[in-house]
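Dear Dr. L.,

I hope this message finds you well. Following up on our conversation about the binding site, I have prepared a predicted three-dimensional model of the protein together with NAP. For your records, I am including the exact sequence and ligand specification that went into the calculation, followed by the C-alpha cells. Please feel free to forward this to your student if that is useful.
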Amino acid sequence: MKTGIFGGTFDPVHHGHVELCRQAEREAGLDRIFVVPARLQPFKLEQKTADGQHRIEMLRLAFSADPRIQVSDYELSREEISYTIHTLRAFQERFPEDEIYFILGTDAFMKIELWRNYGELLKNYHILVGVRPGYREEELERLIRRLEQEFQADIRLLTNKELEISSTDLKEKIRQGCPLGAWLPDIVERYIKEHALYT
Ligand code: NAP
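The resulting structure of the complex is given below.
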C-alpha cells in the first residue's frame, strides 16, 4: 500500500490544505492518507494554537467526504515535540509493508535541512511537495535536485491548484468578522462560529 502522511499545525484547516492533500492522493496514487495535526510544531514552539481537540474536529469535518483520508491523533496524544521523523518511523513500524509518502508545502520543504534527522527522512520516505502562489520555482527545483543527488531522495513536485490562503490571514479575517466561504469549507466555518474560536 502507498500511505500518505500529511502533517501540519492546521490552525485552522483551509481549502489550501484540502487541495494539497487531494492532489497528493491523485498524483501519487495513494491508497490512504493520515492527516496528522502537530501538538508542538518544532518551529512554532512559542505559538499559541487552538486546542488540539478543536483542530482535530475541524480536520475531520474538512476531510469527511473522502474515505481514504483519516485524521490521526498520533502527535496530539504525545507530550513530546512533534518531530516528523518520529511520526514517520512510528507509521512505518505500524505498516511495515507500506511505502510512506510525506506531504508538505513549499515553505516547509525549503527549510527541511533544518529538521531533525532530515537525511534519514529523505532517504527512507517519499516526499510530495505542493506549491502555493509566489513559490520560488527555480530555487525549489535546485534544492530538489541537490537533495535527490545527496540522499537518493524521491521528491515529487505536485501540480496542485495555487491557492492564496494561509491560516494566519484566515485568523485575521475571523477576528474582523469577514465571511470565510472562499477560504475554508462551510462546515468548518460553522464549527469555528459555534465554538467562538480565534475571536
Ligand atoms: P501548516 O501551516 O498547518 O500547513 C500544513 C501544510 O500545508 C504545510 O506544509 C503548508 O505548506 C501547506 N499549505 C498551507 N497553506 C497552503 C496553500 N495555500 N497551498 C498549498 N499548501 C499549503 O503546517 P506547518 O506548521 O508549516 O507544519 C508542516 C509540517 O512540517 C508539520 O507536520 C510539522 O510538524 C512539520 N515540521 C517538522 C519539523 C521537524 O521535524 N523538525 C520542523 C518544522 C515543521 P507551507 O510550508 O508552504 O506553508
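In brief: The mean pLDDT is 96.

With kind regards,
A. P.
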